[in-house]
């Protein structure tokens, strides 16, 4: 049987990535992989203390701290041992002992993997040991046992896979940790095979199943259902499925997973940004839909990611989709998915939509105002019922997802132009969050400029200079029509142009920025600082505070258009402000 056993040892080691060692009852190594392969055929009498203990006790032993475990004290080679963890189980049939099989880890990553799923690995090698014992007695059942073991090799408890085993009566007998967490199953929970229904469709080469959890929730999952026909589990059924988060990674739909996402990454200490953070943190634990408004470049996606990171959904996907960047003809399939052959050019394997991929997490719909009207009707239904229907299918799929939408347009203006549905607006605008433009965040320009300066000096390996007062005054006086994004690009340009001396002057800034300031485009009221090599004017003109200029402009607009609701809307448009921003400024100036 040596060749037969060695074949299984090789396959097991290849699948699990862990070295395997098999010893017979005479302490002879009959199979081994990795560091043990050269020693096949040699005696382990002098160094197999763990295996001696297993044979003596007739039970599985886990040695999670080699050299410090009580069994290891008897080993003559203890001081030279390189093992990090070992799991050994007897190969036996009743009272008859045939040998021992062991899985041995030589690095901390493998050790953690085994310790995190020790029950699964124990069950796995117990199945293998049982199969090897039966091989001795029943050679004629080799093929059936082989198929069973091959299947078990595929379902070792790896991250991202759910595993459930049902007995011949359809009762759940085993459920791994990821599956238990997904369905919210306590240790003593009951679940029947009847809860797992095949839809008859397939996605990405998997079969699709709809699973009804004990709490009544329905999950659409991709996997396989396998009948086991070997050994004592001749009529058992194995259900193996991909977790939604792993499937999202599998198809490459998780976006910018490494992007910093916490509220600490919303840089600024102004009163405006402080109020925004406070409101956002209050609603992070909620499942309510959020509508983020703000000018381009203010960081709407960054705020959405911060809300997701602070919520109970943080361990589930954050799926971002820019609705304005996808052609109308493809948007529906991107959001809701399709079945094989649903339209010309569609994959015959089908595709899951962004709403399903975001299951348990958040879907971020940027540029929501660009969605065509016919799609707005379908999106409204999804928001109301939390159900999607893939293109080419008539089967509703329930989705557990939080929606965060964003726009830099005034949706009420879009409604007046019949470009946006009023009912969809009210469905989205449950929790409105308006990000103030950079020109309204007094004091934040200096903080952000220093942050980006530090970021790009570190990235380009340059010594960070000090932001001098004339340059800082000029940056703070500019209105930043491109907001934080424009400021970041200006600082990146400046660091690239900065000389080796490390001095950061006006000559390091983009010429277009300086031209805009000189011509008054995007100017917040402050003139550019004079270059350091030229003396300042003897009598500079008096500068009126920005606050006074802003108050005067708002007062003039209200006097012209009136203070009715429609008049305020016209005034806001004339001033280039959102209506909410105008109301906020009127309150600040007591107008």
Features:
single chain, 591 residues, alpha+beta, 6-stranded antiparallel beta sheet, 5-stranded antiparallel beta sheet, 20 strands, 39% helix, 18% strand, elongated
Helix content: 25-40%
**What distance lies between the first and last C-alpha atoms, to the nearest angstrom?**
93 Å
Query: Please, what is the average pLDDT?
Result: 82
Helix count?
A: 21
The parts where pLDDT drops under 50 for at least 5 residues are 252-258, 524-541
Cα radius of gyration in angstroms: 33 Å
Portion of residues in beta strands equals 15-25%
Would you count the extended β strands for me?
Answer: 20
Structural class: alpha+beta
Q: Sketch the major β-sheet.
A: 6 strands, antiparallel
What gross morphology would you assign? Answer: elongated
Describe the strand arrangement of the main beta sheet, using strand numbers.
7-6-11-10-9-8
């Amino acid at each position: 049987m040596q060749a037969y056993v060695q074949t299984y040892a090789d396959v097991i080691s290849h699948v699990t990535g862990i070295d395997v060692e098999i010893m017979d009852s005479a302490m002879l190594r009959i199979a081994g992989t990795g560091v043990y392969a050269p020693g096949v055929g040699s005696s382990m009498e002098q160094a197999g203390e763990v295996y001696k203990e297993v044979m003596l006790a007739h039970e599985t032993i886990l040695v999670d701290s080699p050299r410090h475990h009580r069994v290891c004290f008897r080993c003559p080679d203890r001081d030279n041992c390189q093992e990090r963890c070992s799991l050994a189980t007897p190969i036996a049939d009743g009272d008859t002992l045939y040998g021992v099989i062991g899985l041995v880890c030589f690095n901390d990553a493998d050790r953690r993997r085994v310790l995190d799923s020790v029950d699964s690995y124990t069950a796995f090698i117990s199945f293998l040991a049982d199969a090897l014992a039966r091989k001795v007695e029943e050679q004629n059942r080799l093929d059936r046992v082989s198929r069973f073991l091959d299947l078990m090799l595929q379902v070792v408890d790896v991250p991202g896979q759910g595993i459930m085993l049902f007995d011949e009566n359809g009762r759940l007998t085993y459920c791994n940790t990821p599956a238990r967490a997904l369905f919210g199953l306590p240790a003593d929970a009951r679940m029947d095979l009847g809860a797992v229904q095949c839809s008859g469709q397939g996605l990405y080469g998997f079969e699709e199943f709809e699973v009804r959890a004990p709490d009544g929730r329905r999950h659409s999952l991709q996997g396989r259902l396998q009948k086991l026909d070997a050994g004592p589990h001749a009529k058992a059924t194995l259900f193996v499925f991909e977790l939604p988060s792993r499937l999202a990674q599998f198809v490459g739909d998780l976006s910018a997973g490494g992007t910093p996402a916490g509220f600490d990454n919303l840089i600024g200490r102004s009163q405006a940004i402080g109020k925004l953070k406070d409101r956002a943190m209050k609603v992070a634990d909620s499942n309510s839909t959020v509508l983020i408004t703000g000018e381009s470049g203010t960081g709407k996606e960054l705020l959405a990611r911060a809300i997701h990171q602070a919520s109970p959904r943080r361990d589930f996907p954050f799926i971002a989709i820019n609705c304005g960047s996808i052609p109308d003809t493809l948007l529906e399939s991107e959001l809701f998915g399709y079945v094989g052959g649903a339209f010309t050019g569609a994959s015959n394997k089908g595709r899951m939509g962004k709403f399903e991929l975001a299951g348990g997490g958040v879907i971020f719909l940027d540029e929501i105002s660009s969605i065509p009207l016919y799609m707005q009707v379908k999106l409204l239904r999804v928001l109301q019922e939390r159900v999607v229907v893939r293109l080419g299918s008539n089967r509703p799929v329930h989705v557990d997802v939080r929606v965060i939408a964003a726009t830099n347009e005034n949706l009420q203006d879009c409604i007046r132009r019949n470009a946006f549905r009023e009912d969809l607006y009210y469905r989205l605008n449950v929790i409105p969050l308006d990000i103030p433009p950079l020109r309204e965040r007094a004091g934040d320009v200096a903080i952000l400029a220093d942050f980006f300066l530090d970021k790009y000096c570190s990235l380009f390996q340059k010594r960070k200079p000090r932001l001098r007062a004339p340059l800082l005054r000029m940056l703070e006086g500019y209105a930043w029509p491109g907001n934080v994004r424009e400021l970041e690009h200006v600082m990146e340009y400046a660091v690239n142009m900065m000389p080796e001396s490390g001095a950061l002057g006006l000559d390091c800034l983009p010429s277009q920025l300086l031209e805009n300031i000189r011509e008054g485009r995007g100017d917040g009221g402050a003139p550019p600082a004079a270059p350091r090599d030229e003396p300042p004017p003897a009598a500079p003109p008096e500068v009126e505070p920005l606050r006074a200029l802003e108050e005067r402009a708002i007062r003039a607009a209200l006097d012209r258009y009136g203070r009715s609701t429609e008049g305020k809307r016209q005034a806001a448009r004339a001033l280039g402000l959102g209506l909410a921003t105008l109301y906020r400024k009127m309150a600040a100036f007591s107008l």
